[in-house]
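thought: fold this chain, then report.
action: predict
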Amino acid sequence: MGTSAPCSAAQNGSYAQAIAATLSDSCAPALRTPYSATFSSVLAEEGSHFTLCQPACSEDLANYTRSVPSCDEVSAAVANLTSFRSFCYDVTHPTMDGGACTSTDAHRDRLVAGLEGLQWYCGSPACRDNMTARPGVCTTADIETLRNLAAHPVWTRCASALNMSLWSNCSAFLRTDMPLAWCATTCPEFHATMLTTEVPQCNLTTLPTYQRGELAPFFDMLSTAQAEVASLGVVGATAAYMAKFCPEPPTPTPTTTTTPTTTPTPTTPTPTPTTPSSPPFCRRACHVGRSLACPL
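observation:
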């Protein structure tokens, strides 16, 4: 599986599919791993190597081997895979006299030492350009964005409302129980802002489980937020999430009560005795000050 040239866009796509492939129905139970786990993520766990070499996972290994391209930028992954396949051969073909497989440890050491180079996205400028041309595929920069999201400081007023340290980050925020008066704090707005403005726009479902880090429990919500931003824009998605977190109480409909009308009983008015009015001059004088001419 020698390397020969820079990765093409098609080879980058093949590699992205290789690291995104989930375990088969036979391999996942053998590893006691969720079916959503990817082969590449399990390959990074040394304790799973022996099981990965067994018949239950043989098809997974074959598919992964076929999908990993032979090109310069993924040479580390190719070398790791070659070493792992050699390890599998050793553990499944013990010596005829029952002795130890003498090369197993060496292969294992080489595999573990090279795992840090098992990057599902290549590093050269040409390969980055090719990968960027594939819509929806997460890049190394996107992973860095997610790490920055996990480390993003919580808004001061939100942290105070939750009795959190003022140096708390988003990852700690996601693990904190929300108070009953959640909607009276700035925390819902902080939550919505993180979802809609700090999340990369790549397809998060292509990201291997082991790459998700502290945000792994949050990924379903992140994926939903991506769809909201794509359809509503950042402002609309933020408003939608605020409405979802803290919906406005319905405005009560005013009710009108009808007062029964009564038919008035006709009455005969009593005539009021008339009093002679004061002369005009006297009325004017009263407004200025009482005059002797004004009646008391």
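thought: worth noting. The chain has two domains: 9-125, 135-245.
final: tokens above.
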